[in-house]
Design brief:
The protein is of the alpha/beta class. The protein is about 30% helix and about 20% strand. The protein contains 13 helices and 22 strands. The chain has an 8-stranded parallel β-barrel with strand order 2-3-6-11-12-13-14-15, surrounded by 4 helices. Helix 7 runs parallel beside helix 8. The radius of gyration is 27 Å and the shape is elongated. The N terminus is likely disordered.
Amino acid sequence: MKKPILKLCLITAFSALLYSCSENEISASDAKTESQKFKIIDVTHHDGKPFSTGGSGNSTTGKYVDNPGGGVMMQAFYWDVPAGGNWWNTVSSKVTAWGNAGIGSIWLPPASKAQNGAFSMGYDPTDYFDFGDYNQNGTTETRFGSKTELVNLITAAHAENIKVYADIVINHNSGGQSEANPFTGTNTWTNFNGIASGKFKRTYANFYKNSYGNNDEGSFGGFPDLCHADPYVKDWLWIRSDGVGKYYKNTMKFDGWRFDYVKGFGAWVVNAWNANVGGFSVGELWDSNVNVLNDWANAANSSVFDFACYYKMNDAFDGNNLALLNDDMMWKRNPYKAVTFVTNHDTDEIWSKMLAYSYILTHEGYPTIFYRDYEEWLDKNKLNNLIWIHNNKATGTTSILYSDNDEYVARRNGYNGNPGLVVYINNSDVWQERWVQTNWANTQIKDFTGNSTWYPTTQADKWVKIQCPPKGYSIWSINQ
């Protein structure tokens, strides 16, 4: 009697196994079908070339070779870096490691002497030609150091194949002497004839209001507002060979510019600067409206910081609605003129920073890393991994494969033989899995972050199931 019972048990177990396998196949099929319901959004439509920061510049090696994914910028300061004149040396000590990590450029704070002397962050400029070598405003060195130390920093960065961008404040000045101003009928702090360098002296005639008008697009903080319509001001800022722009580029060897507070003057000013001086440029236009950003970038012939992306990331990651990442951003509208960022010296609102960095370092535009995030606050190894992925895998146009409140999956479609990637961001508290359509058929892929240990093989139709850790990300490409 035992044999029939054993046979019956085996049949029952086998039937259960077949049912289980069949159920799993149905479940997998259902999951794939569910993913296929999401209509893929092809975000950008161009030939796939990476963001370019321009020509060879002033590199002592004579080469600034863009990575397959383009470049990564480091904002090499934060608000109120330590005073005492040692910041240029601090940054100099970092550039070799930054270069090894894949950083392609550094953005420095305003380098010239400002009204607050040794304590100024440089945004109240007095003398554009005093880099810490004249005794004025109560100090010889700037907050950041001496001219010699700045030159040494730029030289060290160039030796590591890193471009150096100057923060340029040309909307307003500060630190002038009081003088009678016939245009206002009062005394104004607009006499800069006594500046120590003796270059680009200014008086009330060079500031609004004056003979060229009462005002331009905007003033800042009550500081004297430079009049760019004045031929003398134009000449000293970007036309003459020994003026501000060309001295910074040709003598100090800066490779490009971050223009401060561009809402304060017309886009034509940056356009004229770029046409006469050259170098990479990006404008600080603090506005979340993509139309405003794009119009300015086109009129200025310049890149612009993608504040639209910044605010959408803040709402998406901290508000737990990743579908907001489908919305318009500057990098989607004009990827070759969008500089993306997670935080900077003025604003630091995003809490889910690693998710935000995984976004900007896998998507289009020119991503910027904030000094304190990299050196102090976040996991440097994880950021270095994302920089490597950006430089080596983040190529081609962008397609959004899936999005909802807590999941977002996008694909970079590859360029010039580079396979591109798939990035999966998970803002939930549990592991997630999803079927997605890749660029690759019958190909083994892996997660280049190491967050997942899966090595799945894509199907003939290029679909594959991938996973993502809680409050984390995974980034997939061909296993090679």
